[in-house]
């Protein structure tokens, strides 16, 4: 496995996990900032959303992971705030980050659906980059396989599920940006992101060996199923309203 430490500053080790997640977030924020005017949103408002939703999202991602791994963290409470050791659940980050963004949009009188259409393609890009942090941490991989692209963890060849998700998220980003560059009804991009990402996550989660659980079920698969159904329903409803953007 690769060295999880990217470099050291004044004796403090900086891990690839944090570097890659930060890189993904910064790139997503920059692209969203640049593209904001085509969605009728002032760029200064994007900065407000980013500065609030990203920290809240990180806290939510950690809280979500800790809650669904309480057997461990209940016995090791000193590790709850050990962000540097890994353990951020993307679903928790999305839920808390989107809630924070909703509050900002409501305060600023910005259309939340419009903001989602703007931001979610770049969220997929950030996920694609951040997933490589799992590779350097030796986590979020699948079970044994003899496929030629397998990676070796603890002497065993396994599915690089982080890679599968990274590739799919890049495809989601490219597809959604292409669609967003054409006229479409408000909420189309947001709904497609929810459907496409959740479908991928449901499939990839079946291969993973370190899934968070809800009883006998993998929580990511349960949540992905719920999100797909909700986004399909929202897609149909919003399409009927047919509020067209980007004319």
Task: Provide key terms for this protein.
247 residues, mainly alpha, two-stranded antiparallel sheet, 9 helices, globular, EC 2.5.1.145, transmembrane helix, Lgt
Furnish the topology, listing elements before pairings.
Blueprint: E1 5-9, E2 12-15, H1 16-35, H2 43-67, H3 70-73, H4 90-108, H5 112-130, H6 132-137, E3 151-153, E4 156-158, H7 161-180, E5 184-185, H8 188-205, E6 213-214, E7 217-218, H9 219-241, E8 244-245
Antiparallel strand pairs: 1-2, 3-4, 5-8, 6-7
Describe the protein.
The chain is mainly alpha-helical. The protein has one domain (11-245). It is built from nine helices and eight strands. It has helices at 16-35, 43-67, 70-73, 90-108, 112-130, 132-137, 161-180, 188-205, 219-241; strands at residues 5-9, 12-15, 151-153, 156-158, 184-185, 213-214, 217-218, 244-245. It has a two-stranded antiparallel ribbon. Helix 5 (112-130) runs parallel beside helix 8 (188-205).
């Amino acid at each position: 496995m690769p060295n999880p430490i990217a470099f050291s500053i004044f004796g403090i080790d900086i891990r690839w996990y944090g570097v890659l997640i930060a890189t993904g977030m910064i790139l997503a924020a920059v692209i969203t900032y640049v593209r904001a005017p085509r969605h009728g949103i002032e760029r200064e408002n994007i900065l407000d959303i980013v500065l609030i939703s990203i920290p809240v999202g990180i806290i939510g991602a950690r809280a979500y992971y800790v809650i669904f791994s309480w057997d461990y963290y209940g016995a090791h409470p000193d590790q709850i705030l050990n962000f540097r050791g890994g353990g951020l659940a993307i679903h928790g980050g999305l839920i808390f980050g989107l809630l924070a963004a909703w509050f900002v949009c409501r305060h600023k009188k910005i259309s939340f659906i419009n903001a989602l259409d703007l931001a979610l393609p770049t969220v997929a890009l950030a996920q694609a980059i951040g997933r490589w942090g799992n590779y350097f941490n030796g986590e979020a991989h699948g079970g044994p396989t003899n496929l030629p692209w397998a990676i070796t963890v603890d002497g065993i060849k396994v599915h690089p599920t982080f890679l599968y998700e990274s590739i799919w998220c890049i495809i989601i980003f490219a597809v959604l940006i292409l669609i967003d560059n054409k006229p479409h009804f408000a909420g189309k991009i947001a709904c497609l992101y929810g459907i496409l990402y959740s479908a991928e996550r449901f499939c990839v989660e079946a291969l993973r060996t370190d899934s968070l659980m809800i009883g006998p079920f993998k929580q990511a698969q349960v949540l992905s199923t719920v999100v797909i159904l909700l986004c399909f329903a929202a897609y149909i409803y919003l399409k009927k309203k047919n509020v067209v953007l980007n004319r």
